[in-house]
Design goal:
The structure holds two protein chains of two kinds.
Chain A lengths: L7 H14 L2 H23 L4 E9 L11 H9 L1 E3 L2 E6 L7 E7 L2 H9 L5 E5 L4 E4 L5 H16 L21 H31 L2 H5 L6 H31 L7 H22 L6 H18 L14 H5 L2 H14 L4 H25 L4
Parallel strand pairs in A: 1-4, 1-5
Antiparallel strand pairs in A: 2-3, 3-4, 5-6
Helix pairs in contact in A: 1-8, 2-6, 2-8, 6-8, 6-9, 6-10, 6-12, 9-12, 9-13, 12-13
Chain B lengths: L12 E10 L2 E11 L4 E5 L6 H8 L7 E6 L4 H11 E4 L11 H11 L4 H11 L14 H13 L5 E5 L7 H18 L2 E6 L2 H7 L2 E6 L2 E6 L1 H6 L7 H9 L6
Helix pairs in contact in B: 3-4, 4-5
Classes of the chains: A alpha/beta, B alpha/beta.
Bound molecules: adenosine-5'-triphosphate and magnesium ion.
Amino acid sequence: MNKITNHQLYRLIAAHFAEIIREPSVIFWGVVFPILMAWGLGIAFTQKGGVTAKLAIVKMIDRKDQNHETKLISLLTASSVRKDSSYSVVLKNEKLGDANLTFIETSWSNSYTLLKKGKVSVIIEDRATETRYHFDPANAEAKAAYALASGFAAGGFSSYGNNQSEIEPFTLSGTRYIDFLIPGLLAMGIMMACCWGISYTIIDRRSKKLLRRMVATPMKKSNFLLALITARFTMNVAEALLLFLFAWLYFGTKVQGSWPALIVLFIAGNIAFSGISILISSHTANPEVGNGLINAIVTPMMVVSGVFFSYHNFPEWALPVIQYLPLTMITDSFRSIFNEGAGLLDVWREALVLTTIGAVSFVIGMKLFKWY
Amino acid sequence: MIPQRMTDFEYIVEVRQVRKSFKEVRAVKGVSLMIRPGEFLALLGPNGAGKTTLVEMIEGIQHPDEGEIYIAGKQWKNHQHELHQMIGLSLQETRFMDKLTAYETMRLFASFYKLNAPRVDEVFQLIGLEEKKKAYVDNLSGGQRQRLALGVALLNKPKILLLDEPTTGLDPNARREIWNILLDLKREHNTSLILTSHYMEEAEYLCDRIVIMDQGNILGEGTLQEILALGGGHRSLDELFISLTGRHLYE
Ligand SMILES: Nc1ncnc2c1ncn2[C@@H]1O[C@H](COP(=O)(O)OP(=O)(O)OP(=O)(O)O)[C@@H](O)[C@H]1O
Ligand SMILES: [Mg+2]
């Protein structure tokens, strides 16, 4: 009779947990998606700095010129690999990464078609006496292509240099983009999992009249919420561990600071967003309204809290607000623990503020909470 | 007209002059009802008559704006825990958790009453859903879900059952099976029942007394014969309803 498996808290946690793990989309969005994102973004921004540039080249022959030679094309014919009408040039550089230039020889009108389709960024007008470059100076990619191509035209293969002694590539750990990204993804995972996993579940249950049915029994209301939060938290731990494991094995991500600090902050972050989730879901029984509410909370934070790129690009006046958003506090503290070696003493204030945000939201949420 | 409140529970449920409005909609306009232990009562009436609102007030889910409700002499305000133990209910529409099995759903609700697996097995047998124990709620048919909801209502062997349209959408055989389950409960446990329905034959077959509601009021109550005799002899409830309101009971 007193077996733990008969206890309502046990049954509630088991039920919520079963519901999470039996929903394939939950596993996808919670586990697979963050890993894919880390992998994709990590690869895209962490590769050795190789460059590829594609340029259109148009041969302009002056009528009086007898031998039909133009400047750049003669150089390319002599020194590059030619395939059909395109020439490839590889400028080797160990420190900067190789620069791969492709010159596509074409007509004047076709060169503009290629430009509009984004297949080339620069059009080169090549004559026997001079070479002209047409491109948009506001386009950084085109500017880089111009610099490389004009350098090659003037100085050949040595123009890009090799193994320059004045260049010192970063070797410090914690300075790559992936090191910036992983703490952000971990923080975002907490927010997403709580807001969708707790808020949406509550609103959905309310709309299906299941909350109403449950509180028409001797079930303790606190047990219901405790179970929902516990199941979600357990799942969040698993999701975070899997993401970290992937980052550690694949990118060699390391925690330079203190693990206890990381754990305290992880818990504080979960408390903050669990409280916020209860508050969001306290009143509405309409899943569409709920959807809007959750998006209204989650999307701005995802954009401004510096998960993917630094929020220091935002205007000065916005920074004080941004810095105290819960997601920003988690992201910043995670980053300082991962990359700057921070310990408990460096992040206890954030942990305290996050816990307070969670507790206050929870209390207000409970005051407003509609079970029926 | 309304008898004095008894302390020895001549009435297991007493509803006295209860009113309930939602903004400008007056859903229940001063209704009184008395139900004896072991009595089966049917609430009949068109959509929006106020049946669900009335039943949910008795269940303690909604709170009357005015009037009093006593269950076994107790009010919801101070006796939630005891009253929850005493009643069993099914709402007009509840979706249980999609990804739980029927068995897990029943175990979950059983745990609220501190009941264990043997009682859950007993209830599955009672409602004849044993072969669907392992099926996800998601995959149950509408009728099977209603049986599950009935099973959940019966878990704690309630003294009072409140069922809001428990057989709507069921096939005639399934409906008759549920009627027989309910009649057995009455015979063996002296259970009281308040049931809302749109089926006259259900009210006639199951219930000792029929209450007809319309627009938040009780139009008439009694046995089927008594009700038909109201206003001088009608052949059907529909005919009676037309003579009382000028409208069909169900269009
Ligand atoms: N939560 C609510 N908010 C606003 N109006 C409500 C609410 N619940 C019920 N009503 C209104 O109260 C009236 C009575 O509704 P109720 O659900 O009690 O009818 P019912 O007799 O159960 O009808 P049905 O046969 O369709 O189930 C209806 O006009 C309905 O629109
Ligand atoms: Mg109803």
